[in-house]
Amino acid sequence: MDSKGDLKINEIFFSIQGESSWAGYPTVFIRTSGCHLRCTYCDTKYAYHEGEFQTLEQIITKVQEYPARYVCVTGGEPLLQSAVYELMTRLCDLDYHVSLETSGDKDCGKVDGRVKKIIDVKTPDSGEPKAFAMDNLRFADVNTEFKFVICSEKDFLWAESFANENKLFQKSNVLYSPSFNSVSERWLAEKILGTRSPARLQLQMHKYIWSRDARGV
User: Fold this and answer.
1) 135: which DSSP letter?
2) What pTM did the predictor assign?
């Protein structure tokens, strides 16, 4: 998808980070265009195709317009475009705290080690249950977070089994996020407490500050 090392960008905006252990920090979001998956709960379908090519210099200049030390590279699926690796490295070199939100279906081996990786693990009801690169389990450490979007009781039990079998609770931050209109926040909170799960409940903070359909926030 890249054009001469450029990146197809859907949007760049300044907002409050709503997810991960960095939730709450003022953050510049770089949303890339394009995704090879079609998850049932996707809330950024507009990023499937919309976007314009920008040079890395243009992107970095835009990021520097905002008074933030945190940058989140998200999508779409950022790792579909090879130039994203250089972008993340250059942002790290500029002393930004950089995080990557990825579907988990692409190997993260080329991602700069300074980048916090937020790796999705697709649950059975995601619509993409086989979309996970098992090699990404080698990044289970304190700088990696594994996110499970929970759509049902079946998803919860599956996530618990997957996380336990792969010792993710012992190695990484494990995030459980309720899928909008599928399960309630309270239901998931009570499941975590009732089963003594070590998972961290994650609510998409930005959807409570603004509306669930708002863009650029």
Assistant:
1) G
2) 0.92
Helices (H), 40-184: 56-63, 83-93, 153-165, 168-171
Inter-helix orientation angle 153-165/185-194, to 10° = 40
d(CA 88, CA 72): 9
- Write out pLDDT tens, residues 82-140: 999 999 999 999 999 999 999 999 999 999 999 999 999 999 999 998 899 999 999 99
Take residue 68 and report the two structure tokens written for it.
């933030």
| 57 SS3 class | helix
* Cα-only R_g, the chain: 17
Residue 166 contacts residue 195 (beta carbons within 8 Å): no
What pLDDT digit, counting tens, does each position of 158-192 carry?
999 999 999 999 999 999 999 987 899 999 999 99
